[in-house]
Amino acid sequence: MPIQWRIEQYQKVVSTQNYVFDAVDEGEAEGFVIQALQQQGGKGRHGNQWTSPIGNLYLSILLRPQCDLTQAGQLAFVVAIALSSALDDYIDVRDHIKTLKWPNDVFIDGRKVSGILLESYIRNNQLNAIVLGMGVNIFKAPELGVALNDVAKEPVYINKVRDTILNKLSYYYTMWREKGFAPIREAWLKQAHGLGQPMTARLPQESFKGIFKGIQEDGSLILVNDNHQEQIIHAAEVHFAKE
């Protein structure tokens, strides 16, 4: 069944993630969305701050998947596929190349167009909710990023992009709940950034180098080292030679 989205919009907030976490505490149902025109303290992965100038799309979304914590990581790929599919409405694939960098970054012509953050809400040692944060560069991008408006084949409107993303998310999230991770994994691999290329996976205490072979059934990254041995990476910062 499609998700019934309920959207609240704000001019400026500290972080849309904070609003949705408060909504989880209050028992809000799945499908609650907070959108802000600007954030003063947006969250990125690994505790980094997400720069949030006016002119881009900033959302946080409440999901309540019926799964255990180990499966929740698959949602990173679900969201990436949904966002990528939404951007297909705006990008001419004859002029631009769109790829997905493990696990959930969307790239256009090798430059990052979005940031995705999934935070788990645990209660009584069980997964109670996922708070999904998303920032999409619509009109402004950092130096090494790209703005959708700069590569789009038609005029871009922030709320129209938002609605397209939410529709696609509902579709792929429902697919994941009903059919599992296999079709999501297959769709992701077709757009995988750097597949078959040399890469470095950087962990807090060490780094691994090798060839990016693909992802496992649970979404973990498969790296083949110089000794032709497979190494399984569950979480890391991934870098390719040309970056």
Topology:
Elements (H helix, E strand, L loop, with lengths): L5 E8 L2 H10 L6 E8 L2 E2 L5 E2 L6 E7 L5 H4 L2 H13 L10 E4 L3 E4 L2 E2 L1 E10 L2 E11 L11 H4 L6 H22 L2 H8 L8 E5 L4 E9 L5 E4 L5 E4 L3 E4 L3
Parallel strand pairs: 1-2
Antiparallel strand pairs: 2-5, 3-4, 5-10, 6-7, 7-8, 9-10, 11-12, 11-15, 12-13, 13-14
Helix pairs in contact: 3-5, 3-6
Describe what you observe in this structure.
There is one protein chain. The protein is an alpha+beta fold and 243 residues long. The chain folds into two domains: 6-189, Bira Bifunctional Protein, Domain 2 (BirA Bifunctional Protein, domain 2, 2-Layer Sandwich); 198-240, Roll (SH3 type barrels). The protein is built from six helices and 15 strands. It has helices at 16-25, 69-72, 75-87, 148-151, 158-179, 182-189; strands spanning 6-13, 32-39, 42-43, 49-50, 57-63, 98-101, 105-108, 111-112, 114-123, 126-136, 198-202, 207-215, 221-224, 230-233, 237-240. Strands 1-2-5-10-9 form a five-stranded mixed beta sheet, sandwiched between helices. A five-stranded antiparallel beta sheet has the order 14-13-12-11-15, with no helix packed on it. A hairpin with a 4-residue loop joins strand 11 and strand 12 (207-215). Helix 3 (75-87) crosses helix 5 and helix 3 (75-87) crosses helix 6. The longest helix has 22 residues, at 158-179. The relative contact order is 0.15.
